Amino acid sequence: MILVVSHQQDKHAAAVLAALARSGTAAALLDLAEFPRRGLVTLSQEGRQRQTLLTGADGRPIRAEELSAVWWRRPRPYEVDPGLSPEHAAHASAQTHEALSGALASLDVRWMNEPWADARACHKPFQLSVARAVGLRVPDTLVSNDPAEARRFLAARAGQPVALKLLATTRETWQPTRCVEPRDLESLDRLRLAPVILQEYVPGVDLRVTAVGGRLFAAAIDARRTDSPGDFRMAFEEAEVRPVPLPARLAARLRALLRRLGLAYAAIDLRLPARGEPFFLEANPSGQWLFLEPRTGLPITDAVAGFLAGGAAALRPARRTAGSSRSSAARSSPPPRRPPAARTGTPPARRAATRR
User: Who has greater pLDDT, 195 or 45?
Assistant: First the structure.
């Protein structure tokens, strides 16, 4: 049995569940938002008997001892009884977190990705330091809430574009990557309110590498002739997109990055300049891929399902039509102009014993 920790509105989870169903592999969807208000969790250790039972809102039980793999895919936050006071609601959420975290952290399964590694790998400054350590080229970057440091960084690159990025976003705060503008220089003192990322802007072609259990699926996305050359998400339909092979040295460094981050899955963004090696920008442990399949034919959905199934399942491709990819999810829309659901699921506490 394969467990997908996500929710009904996640198209990527639905696509992988469909691929697993085609192969005859048993799988179940678990939405953490069902707990504790609608879902049930039971952890029993009596004598020599041990049992972990999770029951979602649909009433179907999931026995942890029967699980072989878990996909931690953008879980939603717990939902407590709305009639509770704020104090009691916080208590109920904390108790639920401890119970479910204990259940998940004790599983001896194939993970994509381990929640604790997933949470750590989301931190952009950490990603950049690891990328540099494994030999990837990293743009000059400053993360700070010190206006003086920001002015120094910008002055050292006078006349050159500098990208402005957020460290974390929600649906309400999301904005595309853009370059620093004159109006930003007038309000640098506002950095004291919260840090941001200032980064050397690298013009060129985007390289999106989707990593699935060591397999790397690469697509070049050329948005240079669109209205959004700095962020292809805003102009994906107008961009030129094609699958590309990866140089062996780059592939080896990306795999080393994944090992250091502890990730089985990641969507990695790089930028290919006119000359020299590509620059590493970031890695998203739950990044999207469905938007790539129709225009590249890359079988990423089947690769994810195959990894979760341990490679034993003979995943059957969906019926192909002219211009379609192998996956039934290939007809998905391009990446959203607003971000997907916020990563608000809280990962379980990490176990003392490592099992990567």
Answer: 195
Closest CA to 121 of 351, 350, 353: 350
**In 3-state terms, what secondary structure has residue 40?**
strand
What is d(CA 168, CA 285) in angstroms, rounded to the nearest whole number?
14
What DSSP assignment string belongs to 250-313?
HHHHHHHHHHHHT-SEEEEEEEE-SSSSPEEEEEETT---TTTHHHH---HHHHHHHHHTTT-S
Residues 6+ apart with CB under 8 A from 300: 210, 212, 217, 289, 292, 293, 327
3-state secondary structure of 214: coil
pLDDT at 346: 56
CATH 3.30.470.20, the chain: domain bounds: 203-331
Give the pLDDT band of residue 179 (cuts 50, 70, 90): confident
Provide the 10 A C-beta neighbour count for residue 165.
19
* 140-200 has CATH 2.120.10.10 classification: no
Cα-atom radius of gyration of the chain, to the nearest Å?
A: 22
CATH of the structural domain 203-331, one choice from 2.40.110.10, 3.30.470.20, 2.60.40.10, 3.30.565.10? 3.30.470.20
Taken in order 34, 265, 292, 201, the sign of the CA dihedral is positive
Structure confidence by residue, pLDDT tens digits, 51-62: 888 998 788 899
pTM of the predicted protein model: 0.84
